[in-house]
Amino acid sequence: MQDDNPNTERYIAIARACLKAINDTAKNAGDREQKIQAVYQAIDTAFQAEFADYRESVAIMATVLERIATGELDAETATALARKTLDQQPKTTTKAMMH
C-alpha cells in the first residue's frame, strides 16, 4: 500500500482491530464459533467506525440533491449549495481509492 494513499490510516486501524480480536479470542477458552463471531464483529465495528465520514457525506449529498431536484431552489442557490456541499465532503472521497 502506498504511503501517500489517504486510506492508509484507515486500513491500519481496521487491520489492528482484526489482529486484536484474533489475539483476544486466541487467549480465551471457548467455542470456536463464538471466537469467529467475535472476530467478525470486531471487523464490522472497525469498518463502521472508519467509514462513518463517508456515510455522513453521502447522506448530506443526497439531501442537497433532493432539494435541487425538487426545483425549490433557483439556479444560483442550487449551484452555491452544491459547491458548499462538495467543499465539505471528506477529502478521501474526492480522488482516493476506497479499497
Written overview of the protein:
The protein is mainly alpha-helical and 99 residues long. 72% of the residues lie in helices and 0% in strands. The protein has 4 helices and no strands. α3 (52-69) packs antiparallel against α4. The longest helix has 20 residues, at 8-27. The protein is elongated and about 65 Å long. 4% of the residues are buried.
Please tell me what the overall shape is: elongated
User: With helices defined by DSSP (H or I, 4 residues minimum), what is the helix count?
Assistant: 4
- The secondary structure category is mainly alpha
Radius of gyration, in angstroms, nearest whole number: 20 Å
What is the count of β-strands? 0
- The amount of helix comes to over 70%
Low-pLDDT stretches are none
Q: Summarize the helix and strand pattern as letters.
A: HHHH
Give the N-to-C terminal Cα separation: 10 Å
- Percent of residues in β-strands: under 5%
In short:
The chain has helices at residues 8-27, 32-50, 52-69, 75-88. With 99 residues, the protein is mainly α.
Question: What are the salient characteristics of this protein?
Answer:
elongated, 0% strand, mainly alpha, 99 residues
Structural topology:
Layout (H helix, E strand, L loop, with lengths): L7 H20 L4 H19 L1 H18 L5 H14 L11
Helix pairs in contact: 1-2, 3-4
